[in-house]
UniProtKB/TrEMBL annotation:
InterPro entries: COQ10-like, COQ10_START, START-like_dom_sf. Signal peptide: none annotated. Residues 12-133 form the Coenzyme Q-binding protein COQ10 START domain. This is Cyclase/dehydrase. Belongs to the ribosome association toxin RatA family. SUPFAM superfamilies: Bet v1-like. The lineage of its organism: Bacteria, Pseudomonadati, Pseudomonadota, Alphaproteobacteria, Acetobacterales. GO terms for molecular function: ubiquinone binding. It holds the Pfam family Polyketide_cyc.
Length: 156
């Protein structure tokens, strides 16, 4: 099933990157293929959120429970929608130059048609989504003083 891991050093602080990823309601403003987002509820460090993703003729909505452990970790647990399962983790590790981001996503659609459609473009789609978060960081926080972010991706 599609699985993607990336590790990337960025020149922003862990709290800044955490805040961008935790701001689920703003995803449609910058995240490719995200055409809708709604935070149903938020209590303390836990939120229940709906996302709608559209690509080509496909449009799917799903619900996730998002556990926020600021500023180090975001864990997404799938609740309802078109997947058999969805696992997603973000870790924001302090580094003397900024933040080492560890990103992981693994999922399987219930529909074989959807699984085959996304499987062909999955790695590139996730790369674009991770890049969209980094562009969002530049848009919100400005360009880091020492230049562009440092890339060190590792696919798994």
């Amino acid at each position: 099933m599609p699985r993607y891991t990336e590790r990337k050093l960025v020149l922003y602080q862990p709290g800044q990157m955490f805040d961008l990823v935790a701001d689920v309601g703003k995803y449609p403003q910058f995240l490719p293929w995200c055409i809708g987002a709604r935070v149903r509820s938020q209590r303390g460090d836990e939120m229940l959120a709906d996302l709608t993703i559209g690509f080509g003729p496909f449009r799917e909505s799903f619900t996730s429970r998002v556990m926020l452990n600021a500023p180090e970790h975001i864990h997404v647990r799938y609740e309802n929608g078109p997947f058999r399962y969805l696992r997603n983790e973000w870790r924001f590790l302090p580094d003397e130059r900024g933040t080492m981001i560890d990103f992981y996503v693994d999922f399987e659609f219930r529909s074989l048609i959807l699984q085959k459609a996304i499987g062909a473009v999955f790695a590139e789609a996730v790369r674009r989504m991770v890049a969209a978060f980094l562009k969002r960081a530049r848009d919100v926080y400005g360009t880091p003083q020492s230049g562009a972010d440092l890339a060190a991706p590792a696919e798994g």
